[in-house]
Each structure stands twice: as structure tokens, then as C-alpha cells.
Fold this sequence. Notes:
Number of helices: 9
Number of domains: 1
Strand order of the largest sheet: 3-4-6-5
Helix content: 40-55%
Largest sheet: 4 strands, antiparallel
Distance between the termini: 91 Å
CATH architecture: 2-Layer Sandwich
Structural class: alpha+beta
CATH class: Alpha Beta
Amino acid sequence: xxxxxxxxLISLSSFIVLVIIYIAINYFAPINPDRLNFVHAYFAKGVYxxxxxxxxxxxxxxxxxxxxxxxxxxLRGNERTFADNILNTPPKEFGxxxxxxxxxxxxxxxxxxxVKLKDSAETGIQYLPSHVYEDYEKMMKAMSADLGRKLxxxxxxxxxxxQAYLFFKYLVNIYDFSLKENCKWIxxxxxxxxxxxENTAIDFVSExxxxxxxxxxxxxxxxxxxxxRWLKANAAKFNFVLSYPYKNSAGINYExxxxxxxxxxxx
Length: 267
């Protein structure tokens, strides 16, 4: 009997050691951009849950401005190490060729009040740097004069903290722990035009709630809008540029709703 118990204990101990070794091998393995292994996925989920908790502690209208250092300060041990490893990896390692903009929070931001759209959706409170907001307002005044319609800001300025939160949220919940797929839609913090204090991007939404990505919508839905055709013909006059057209060199999926500000782009 004693020998049987001893054999079981030795076998159990050996099994535990093997499990620990297996976990350690996966933890120290290179990050797989196609799909995180189970250990890396576990840490990604932990990072997301920590970010979610911190974000939820802020009023909803302040979440677009949360500093990335606040989020990272709440991480401990291996989760912090893992997050730093991911966030400090250049996007080109995941197949994306976008420049670095900034992780510093913008100043001189204009708050844009929430707008209720015709389909009962809402834009939420948004922010734009003053120079971007001024040109947006001029452009919408011209669009309204021509079409009797305008586009609203569905997403404007986002801090690097907000971008980091969204990056891990979509990585965990939407793109099945694939960094390559996630990066095609959600830029890494510092590499998003939404976080550029100078060349801030706007994701537009129509009065009818068409933004090209909510629910079952697709890019084609936004393309069909007369507002989109107007943008293609006139946006450059107001210093706005379509960031990610078809088959763009950056490797980002086509986003007809996403336009960034760039000085002197038009006549």
C-alpha cells in the first residue's frame, strides 16, 4: 500500500513538473502573430480585464482621454511584462506599415456633444484638436449647403490609453488572439491617426447611423452614401484625406469612413 501511494505521489509530482515546464516553454516562446499560444492568450485576457476595470472607473465622456501610463500602472508582474512586450513591438512585425505618431496626450481639444442618430444610435461625446475641429465644421457647412446632409464624428481623438484598451479588447473578443488580424483594424497605441495630435483622424457616421462597420454594416454601405462621394470630391479642400483606400500600402483594411487631417492637401 505504501509503495503504491509513493508511486502515485511521485507520478503526480512528475506530472506537475512537466506541466510547469510546458507552461514555461510557452511563456518564453516567441510571440506568434498569427495566433497567441494559450499562455500568451491568458496574459492578453488578463491585460484586457485590467484595462476594462480601469476604464470603467472613469466617466464615459472621459475615457477617450485616459493616459496610457494610468492603465499600465495597474498591471503587475508578468501581465505588465507581456503588455510592454506587445506594445513595444513595431507593427511591421505584424504586417502593418504605419508610422509612429505619438503617445502623448493632445491639448487644446474641443469637446463635441453627443448626437442622437435616426436609427437610435448615438455618437457619444467626442473630441478633436481645435484646428481639426475648425476644418471639420467648415467642411460640414459646405456639405450641408450642397446635399442638405452632413456627417457626424463617430470617433475622433483617442489617447494612447484608449487605443491600448481597444487593441486588447478586440484582440481578445473579436480577432481570436491574432495580432495580424487585429492590427488590420485596430492600430497599436502610438500608431493610430486617432491619437495624432496634429493629423487626427475622424471616423464619420451619417445621420442615418451608417458608419460602415457597426452591426452588419460593411464598407460598401458607407461607399453608397452621397456624403462619401462628396468627401471624395471635396474633402481635400478642407485638409482631409482618405487614410486607407483599397489595397493601401499600409496593410490596413479599406476604411471609407476614416479620414485624417493633413495641412495643404487641396487647392
